[in-house]
Amino acid sequence: MPAFLPPEMLLRAYAAGVFPMAEHRDDPEVFWVDPERRGILPLDGFHISRSLARRMRRGGYRVTLDADFAGVVDACADRTETWINGPIRAAYLALHRRGNAHSLEIWEEGALAGGVYGVTLGRAFFGESMFSRRSDGSKLALAHLVDHLRRCGFTLFDTQFLTDHLARLGAMEISRAAYRARLAEALADRADIRALPLEPDPAQVVQRNTQTS
User: Fold this and answer.
1) Residue 63 lies in a domain
2) Per the domain annotation, does 164 fall within a domain?
């Protein structure tokens, strides 16, 4: 029978260090993942390349938080192979409605150019997926999200897995035990992704990143 993922179950799973995936978009079932090696993105170690810094200083794009959560999820699933099936989509929309799932959007010329979404719990942000429809769309989203999370008091950015793309941006891989220790520390306190407004000036994001990385 199709999977059903109540918000409370999902939050307990994240607190225990596991997360759901599906084999493909048409598979109604989900399975739980607990990687031996976990990807994380240190909030003080995000790498903004010179070309990305130039792109950010040039501007010409707009950044929003939770302006189109469903649109970001659907854009992340709009690819040949995706683990985002119907039950997972419904579950994260429900988490968003209760304030535990958020999206950051990059807009160019009134259209979604890139974005990222994930779950917040304690002082942890669990990144679920990201997408680009225009050049550097996901990189811009991550640069602004890392800056915002750091300013709001978050301490852990979980990327689940380490990809080449994320490694170039400063992500790293740690053991399951090391991840569980960082997770426990992050869950011992609370941060609010809405505590501060997003930084409207990309140049300030670049400057702060240079000071902390």
Assistant:
1) yes
2) yes
Averaged over successive runs of 10 residues, the pLDDT of the chain (213 residues) comes to 78 97 91 96 95 95 98 95 92 96 97 98 97 94 98 98 94 97 98 97 94 73
**Alpha-helical runs (H) found in the chain:** 7-16, 50-58, 69-77, 86-97, 137-151, 164-168, 176-187, 202-212
Tell me if the pTM is above 0.90: yes
From residue 4, alpha-carbon distances to 1, 7, 206 in Å are: 9, 10, 41
Given a contact cutoff of 8 angstroms between Cβ atoms, the answer to whether 134 and 110 are in contact is no
Q: What is the count of structural domains for the chain?
A: 1
What CATH number has the domain bearing residue 179?
3.40.630.70
Structural domain containing residue 202 = 37-80+96-212
For the CA atoms of 131, 87, 127, 18, the dihedral, rounded to the nearest 10 degrees, stands at -150
